[in-house]
Design a protein that fits this description.
By secondary structure, this protein is mainly beta. The chain contains 1 helix and 8 strands. A hairpin with a 3-residue loop joins strand 7 (73-80) and strand 8.
């Protein structure tokens, strides 16, 4: 018998995903499951935790992130909606 138990809702609703290409110079794409076309919000932070970009009302199953004015470096992202997806990417 399995005596383990879940400690929070996030155990079930948070998943790791990737962006590609990664590292990238101009743009990267994040694919995720969104069959019901629910709204998602993408929050990108730098390594200090500062929010550097937010993309709202994503209703597809992918989002393209353009580098624009982001400097080279390591970034974390969180895609929030029905499920929470987390990942990281590097800008060259």
């Amino acid at each position: 018998e399995d005596n383990r138990f879940l400690t929070s809702v996030n155990d079930l609703r948070s998943r790791e995903i990737i962006s590609y290409p990664n590292p990238f110079s101009n743009r990267t794409q994040i694919d995720f499951e969104n069959p019901m076309k629910q709204p998602y919000q993408l929050i990108i932070t730098d390594m200090s935790g500062k929010i550097v970009k937010v993309i709202k009302d994503i209703r597809d199953d992918k989002v393209v992130v353009l580098r624009e004015n982001l400097p080279q470096g390591f970034y974390l992202f969180e895609l929030k909606g029905e499920t929470v997806y987390r990942g990281k990417f590097i800008i060259e």
